[in-house]
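Ticket reopened. Same input as before:
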Amino acid sequence: MELCDLTIHEAHDLLRARQISSTELTRSVLERIHHLDPQLRAYITLAEEQALEQAAQADVRVQTGRDITPLTGIPFSAKDSIITQGMRTTCGSRILENYIPPYQATAIQRLIAAGAVLVGKNNMDEFGMGSSCENSAFFPTRNPWDIERVPGGSSGGSATAVATSMALFALGGDTGGSIRMPASFCGIVGLKPTYGRVSRYGLVALASSFDTIGPMARDVQDTALVLSVIAGVDPRDSTTLQAPVPAYANKLKEDVRGLRLGIPKEYFVEGMESGVASAIQDAIRVYQSLGVEIREVSLPNARFGLPVYYLILFAEASANLARFDGVRFGRSDRTETGDLVDQYLRTRQNGFGAEVKRRIMLGAFTLSEGYYDAYYLKAQKGRALIRRDFEMAFTQVDALITPVCPTTAFKLGEKVDDPLAMYLSDVYVVSVNPAGVPALALPCGFANGLPVGMQLIGNFLGEDLLFQLGYAYQQNMQWHRQRPGLL
Amino acid sequence: MPTDSQSPRFDIDLVKHIAFLVRLGISEEEAQVFGQQFETIIEYFNLLNEADLAGIDPAGQARHACNILREDEVQPSLSRDAFLANVPEHDGVYVKVPVVTGVE
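Engineering reply: fixed in the latest deploy. New output:
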């Protein structure tokens, strides 16, 4: 075990006691990256010098004993769709291959102000469009449990980095499962917060009414520590919520006895791998033994979640990605003789990958005259149904338990040429985003040597309860302590 | 006009038309492959026709959003130099683009 293999809270205790320094910890993370990343490829951009400078500053902060936070001196990475001032931000796309942002995302700014050390930027499916990390314009990331398999997506680089201690935690982005799904495939914890809990300022927009930034870490306690720092009102994002931010990590240990956990019956029907189903059943039994009341509930419109999610996503993505026009920033393919429209056509043809092209075209289609009512408007109504399903369920229970994904990590290349099959792997995660509620993914076993993740879905602003349930589970089951064999 | 039960056929001309709507250059081969994929995807999404949406108001947001306004005070914004650093082509302080009105 190296220093980088510590969790945030373990490293914090040692930093505070001055038994280790942030410089030593950061060097250990960088060594791990040099050792493993040539094989796993979790990083698009590394910022070693800057990280060591930030670590040195954190060490000064600890030595003077002032303003030490639980994240001071802790090395982290960020999905490459989160804007980092002065550090290349590609979104996994050729169209932003050389983009150096002149401003900082609020979540990054808050972490750096807390003394966390930004090591680099993680690989992802281009603009967050994908469930396997294979849609990166640069290279696929590998799953550390089996390098022939995908890490999940779209925050796949971040999940692989955290699972192998190439960062102690990461910021991911979740528009329709992009934090939870790779967390599940890589055996780590990931939180999709309530919509508006964390500022989206500086998150490159995919579907603005679904997009969230959230933490990915090795255990529930670490995840809670990070959320407390990044959550809260931001004048730069008018959708952020006014509700006060609790010190989530202080409430973890509250007793879960008597809480009500719902099993949505529509999620447990068909298409689920048997190893996944049995791991979830085992987790349900653990909660029963902890005194949690288990109830079956119904989300009657669950099967419409996938079309509702994707139809709205296509439309919003189509509008959001119109900004990549080769005029103000990013790639620009212009010729001596061509006009402005010619430049748009060339820039976008050469700059976007196939999945991005598919989605913005389908978005324009569903918004176009004659099809708007049949697709986009219908999806907006479907969204109201899905929201209502969750509202009804949360009158009966405090949280829901489901798998994250119907399968464990699939093989590289297995679904990449079949877009619909790739979309179907998101069936359990996408409905959460149209409803805006929070969901926590955490490891709950293995099937054929690959991690299985469970999803706990909470009510609006119910992150504290999800953390309590997750923490109670991790006090009793040790799946999150399993590490990939290549470490 | 399409009806609820009828999926559109994405022939090459329709795919190329949509590509132009989003200002995306596209080859014949790409248009053909995308057309087939779009039919499969949209056909699956027609599942939504089975939902009972009578009397349901469309929802644009997860929760009701309201306008958030700040005091109308001048605040610092991005400097001109910082902005121009990412501009693909500029002439002094002017952003340069290819001719807009068509090439003679």
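Residues 28-45 of chain B form the longest helix (18 residues). DSSP finds three helices and two strands in chain B. Please confirm and we'll close it.
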